[in-house]
């Protein structure tokens, strides 16, 4: 079974267990995830969220920039923002 087939067969309960395992670094039975397991599980969680059309603000890694002084769609539109680094 390839990765895409696995994601297609993943149900919500398994998704929730994978997501929790990535969050706390342990499987439901208490065993610690290896780095490879954590990476693969995180990829599966993100793929499932995309397939299942989980709301953007509920997806893994979402950062809410609304109201942030660092980000304004009206001010910048779709143009990239150039960052200037300051030492000090």
TrEMBL record:
Which InterPro entries does the annotation name? DUF1315 (IPR009749)
Tell me the protein's name: DUF1315 domain-containing protein
């Amino acid at each position: 079974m390839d990765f895409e087939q696995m994601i297609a067969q993943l149900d919500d309960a398994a998704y929730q267990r994978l997501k929790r395992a990535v969050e706390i670094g342990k499987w439901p039975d208490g065993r610690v995830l290896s780095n490879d397991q954590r990476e693969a599980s995180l990829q599966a969680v993100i793929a499932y969220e995309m397939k299942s059309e989980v709301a953007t603000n509920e997806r893994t890694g979402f950062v809410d920039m609304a109201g942030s002084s660092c980000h304004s769609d009206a001010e910048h539109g779709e143009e990239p923002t150039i960052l200037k680094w300051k030492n000090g």
